[in-house]
Amino acid sequence: MNPLKLFLFELQEISFLIWRAFVGLSRKPRYWGETVRQMDLIGVGSLPIVLLTGFFTGGVLILQTFPTLQYYSIQNEAGRSVATSLVRELGPVLTALMVSGRIGSAISAELGSMVVSQQIDAMRALGTDPTKKLVSPRLLALIFMLPLLTVAADIFGIIGGAVVATSLFNQDLNVFITSVRNGITTEDLVGGIIKPLFFGLIIGSIACFKGLSTTGGTVGVGRSTTSAVVLSSIVVIIFDFFLSKAIASILDIGHI
Amino acid sequence: MLASELEQPEITITESEMAPTADIQEAVDEPDRILPAIEFRDVHLSFDDKKILNGVSFTVRRGETKIILGRSGGGKSTTIRLVLGLLKPDSGQILIDGEDITHYTEEEMMRVRQKIGMVFQEGALFDSLSVYENVAYRLIEQGVDAETTEKEVRRMLRFVDLEDAIDKMPSELSGGMRRRVGIARALVGDPTIVMFDEPTAGLDPPTARTICELAIKLRDLEDVSSIFVTHEMNNLEYLSSEYATVNEDGEVVYEMEGEKICLINTEVLMLRDGQVIFSGKDEQLRKTEDQYIRKFIRGK
Q1: Mind listing the pLDDT tens digit for each residue in A34-76?
Q2: pLDDT tens for each residue of A63-112
């Protein structure tokens, strides 16, 4: 199969998978318990790495931009620069990339192992729809938890920026906080929460699709896991561009 | 179903004399029994350019065990995956209890699968669930209450002689125990049809024998129709020459067919490159002049 055909085929299969996962939610049995378990695994489990990433990203942003801002004597706007960057772009994208690496790989490996050990066939043979039982809860959990993780990353990023600005550049904390408050608009916050909803769907659907289409034994599991992480990371970054443009137009942010 | 149950045991009956009488008697007693449990009609299936099944036709009667023999890659496992609707044929018809399932959707197949049990090659137990949860899986999904579920799970684990392992995880079980748990899981809900996909592959002879005994017990005491996919001649020997019965003490015993009894509920089907090259009794298989079959049976 040539690459274009393969791409279109995979796109079609992923779309069907998403459709079946959401249609499945309207029919019994519904796996709420499994959904909550996945939320715990994805949300609470990813919190430490997301907070660390957010904190140090905020810190390094101030570290790199503060001297430039100081050169132009606008260092009082440091808080605005870090908050805007984090809330609009870096928070959602970095969180999605971290979750893609941690959760996307785990989902793909788990489902892939189940395929090669015939557990998915066994599930179907026992009268259970694997899409409803395995895909729907993971997709829902990712769509629900990713915005929350992003908000946590944003907050810790701003804290990280504040720590660096006050400790390394001796900026007054009140100046930093005022700058942050003046810099972030409601549209920024709304846009920053809409993005992870889509990123969650992208990571979940690609990871589940790659896992469920695993072939070739344990080597195949490794292959699907790698391609799930790589593909979802690339798609998140590409999608971010178009989503940013769409959100800017719809919410009239006007800076992009 | 044994010949002894249908005719006077003192009379020696040959296989050819026995079959029509039994069928007529069955049809009178239970008209539904005349309907095959599984029927394949000219089934074709290809993956890319490779033909996996090429015009396969056969029937499995109620209470009958069909042993499917053949080399690896000959289409044996594919056949039972088709019965379960895990794969769809390119052409031909597949009937379960007279119901044409060929073009059933996944949702329609869920209902049909309720009456089919499947024993996978490596057991295919859910790693994250205990033995109890694995065996109870179908009942939990159906929302059966906890008390009934536990009763049923224990009954099934007793059937495979593994009640002591109820709280263990699959990783703590040996290969043979995993297969037996797989059988218990497949039998929950009392399916009328059971598929065995090379259940003895890689097992030591005594454990393989135990698995075959379970299949014999299902066939003779539970009236289950089954397809037993294998490439091991020992399995064929056990399944086609022994039967299970209950002695005066209520224990299940296995006896050899002999002068008095001839098993009519076990047939052999041999596949080669997706085509049926033999269908009949094991005695006929052993007498065949076909070089491929002779080589398969004797290993040289």
Answers
A1: 999 999 999 999 999 999 999 999 999 999 999 999 999 898 9
A2: 999 999 999 989 899 999 999 999 999 999 999 999 999 999 999 999 99
Q: How many CA atoms lie within 13 A of A41 on its CB side?
A: 17
Q: Which of A183, A201, A193, A187 lies closest to A239, judged by CA?
A: A201
Which of A113, A118, A127 is facing B141, going by the closest CB pair? A127
In Å, how far from its chain's centre is CA A106? 14
ipTM of the complex: 0.79
What residues contact residue A191 under an 8 Å CB cut-off, 6+ apart? Answer: A88, A244, A247, A248, A251, A253
| pTM to 2 decimal places | 0.83
Residues of A in contact with B107 (CB under 8 A): 129
Contact residues, chain B, for A21 at CB < 8 Å:
none
Structure tokens at B231: 């490439």
Cβ neighbors of B42 (< 8 A, separation 6 or more) are B55, B56, B57, B91, B92, B93
* Cα Dmax for chain A: 70
CA nearest neighbour of B234 among B244, B226, B242: B242
Strand bridging mode B193-197 / B116-119? parallel
